[in-house]
Write a structure and sequence with these properties.
- By secondary structure, the protein is α+β, with helices and mostly antiparallel strands.
- The chain folds into 2 domains: 270 residues, no CATH class; 248 residues, Jelly Rolls (Sandwich), CATH 2.60.120.
- The protein is built from 13 helices and 25 strands.
- The strands form 4 sheets. Strands 1, 4, 7, 8, 10, 11, 12, 13, 14, 15, 16 and 17 form a 12-stranded antiparallel β-sheet that branches. Strands 18, 19, 20, 21, 22, 23, 24 and 25 form an 8-stranded mixed β-sheet that branches.
- The longest helix has 20 residues.
- The chain starts with a helix and ends in a 6-residue tail after the last strand.
- It binds 2-oxoglutaric acid and fe (ii) ion.
- Fe (ii) ion (FE2) binds next to loops.
């Protein structure tokens, strides 16, 4: 018997200092992320050949969740110099065939740039030890590239904008980002560089910079962005010959461009401003943001890659940090597509690591959200199965036969309702062979467990629209058939509930009729597979 309970607690991964420490570490990483938010993000756009039908840029709101971003046509740059009014044209990437896409024309562009200065106080300084580059002001050239065509601006908006909260900007409820072309920069090998600096904001509404690296081969030239002791390196050299690569960061980020050892690194810089108009929600995995550029990515990747973290799998629960109308009639349409800030960061990191992740509402039960772990301090405790006497049953047997249990479960429809649900919970707890939240919710509906008070968070089967209902005095509110849900015990909660929405209101008939409202909070649930399956 002693051996059994030890096995059970090991299998649950709970009450082990290591597991608790890792959860704590994840909690602190997320808190840091929420405080600092993401300070930078970046991505890649492939360049297709300049075929007859120009590739149409994607429209916001019509990306399928798996679609790759639309490739760009080759990028044209047109310019003229003061001495010579003839317009010149360069097409990148170089095709080596047409004159306008040849090395001599690229060299002409580099030669026509002015030596780049940098701002120090009120002065513009020319010091090639500090910045060795050429630049062309936006009034002197035109380009066929626009970042709005590729969803770059909307994506940057979602990652960087939510944490901007100056008094002026907070008065803009539907604020969005606009990018204004600023300069073209040319850094050439063997010695082009720009040492550590902070960009000078051009107005009080400027919140950051966007750098777009055009397809032109070079070596070296890493862009290194730093913020509050965190560093992200954009190494664009490897794919420089045939892709457009970009990065956006807050104005207060220090950044530098390491030495370009060969080739020409041609970038367009844009100033990012906060403006008023309305934006819509669109799916996350649109391939525009590369989750690997998000500062939290490597922490979560390390955690998930560690065999001793949730070795048998488990569910991480993270309450959303921003408020969403998750019980409105539009919720299904707007979530998870409309997640913002650290929420979109976490969601897309889990998704890109192949982890099943969903946004679902969790219902309060008597003012609490997670009856099994009420403190949120990660004082994890072993789950005890209420109303179920496990004495005399061989847990060891169940643990050793997860697969069998699973297949037994999936054919459990011939079992009576309660028995079926009990089997499922046991599968979750003792085998941790979780197939996914949706799978669990689909089969273990509220109706099946209505006669049982199980522990665990009461998770909605979907983003239900707010509704009203009537039910009898003896019924528990969550038993009302308006809010389909089920108790999911064993979720490892990493953060606390933050923004409640009304889930449903009810009229409870009794000696006196009363009206009550139940609330729910939206949470990100990530199903971590057992180590041998991730
Ligand atoms: O070219 C780049 O990567 C960025 C240039 C830059 O930092 C600037 O122009 O301020
Ligand atoms: Fe800069």
């Amino acid at each position: 018997m002693e051996q059994q309970s030890q096995l059970a607690s090991e299998d649950l991964g709970q009450e082990q200092p290591d597991f608790v420490n890792r959860c704590r570490w994840l909690k602190h990483s997320i808190e840091r992320q929420r405080q600092a938010a993401s300070f930078t993000c970046g991505g890649t756009i492939l360049v297709g050949s300049d075929n007859k039908e120009k590739t149409e840029p994607p429209l916001s709101g019509v990306h399928s969740s798996t679609s790759a971003p639309c490739p760009s046509s080759p990028v044209s740059i047109l310019w003229a110099t003061c001495n010579d009014s003839t317009a010149r044209k360069l097409v990148l990437p170089l095709d080596g065939v047409s004159q306008e896409s040849s090395t001599p024309v690229l060299q002409q562009l580099v030669a026509d740039c002015d030596p780049a200065t940098f701002g120090r106080g009120q002065e513009d300084i020319l010091d090639t030890e500090y910045r060795k580059a050429g630049k062309m002001d936006h009034g002197h050239f035109a380009t066929s590239f626009h970042p709005a065509d590729f969803g770059i601006i909307e994506n940057v908006e979602r990652i960087l904008l939510p944490s901007i909260s100056t008094a002026t900007d907070n008065q803009m409820p539907f604020r969005k980002l606009t990018a204004e072309l600023y300069k073209l920069n040319a850094y050439s090998g063997p010695s082009g560089l720009f040492r550590k600096h902070v960009d000078t904001p051009r107005s009080k509404h400027q919140i950051g910079s966007l750098v777009v690296c055009l397809p032109s081969a070079f070596q070296g030239g890493d862009l290194v962005v730093q913020h509050n002791g965190q560093t992200v390196v954009f190494d664009w050299s490897m794919r420089s010959s045939n892709t457009i690569q970009w990065a956006a960061f807050y104005s207060d980020c220090e950044h530098e461009i390491k030495q370009i050892t060969s080739g020409d690194r041609i970038t367009l810089t844009y100033n990012l401003f906060v403006t008023e108009p309305v934006g819509g929600a669109f799916p996350l995995s649109n391939g525009i943001i590369n989750p690997k550029t998000l500062p939290l990515y490597s922490s979560i990747e390390t955690l998930v890659g560690d065999p001793s973290f949730m070795e048998k799998g488990g569910v991480l629960g993270i309450y959303c940090s921003h408020a969403y109308p998750h019980s409105s009639s539009m919720a299904e349409e707007h979530l998870p597509g409309g997640l913002k800030g650290s929420d979109v960061v976490l969601y897309s990191i889990f998704e890109s690591l192949g982890i099943e992740v969903s946004v679902l509402p969790v219902l309060e039960i008597e003012g609490e959200y997670n009856s099994d772990i009420p403190s949120f301090e990660l004082k994890l405790r072993s789950y005890t199965y209420p109303g179920q006497d496990l004495k005399g049953k061989s847990l060891q047997g169940n643990i050793g036969r997860d697969r069998e249990l699973l297949s037994y479960d999936s054919s459990a429809s011939d079992l009576s309702g309660d028995e079926c649900v009990e089997r499922r919970w046991r599968t979750l707890f003792f085998s941790r062979r979780v197939c996914g939240i949706q799978d669990l919710l689909r089969t273990a509906t509220k109706r099946e467990i209505s006669t049982q008070r199980l522990e665990g968070a009461l998770v909605g089967t979907g983003l239900h629209e707010y509704d009203t209902t009537t039910f009898g005095q003896d019924m528990e509110p969550e038993e009302a058939s308006v809010w389909r849900s089920c108790h999911l015990p064993g979720i490892t909660w990493i953060t606390e509930p933050k923004h409640q929405e009304m889930a449903f209101s009810y009229i409870a008939y009794g000696n006196e009729a009363s009206i009550g409202t139940q609330y729910s909070c939206a949470a990100i649930l990530a199903v971590i597979p057992p180590f041998d399956r991730r």
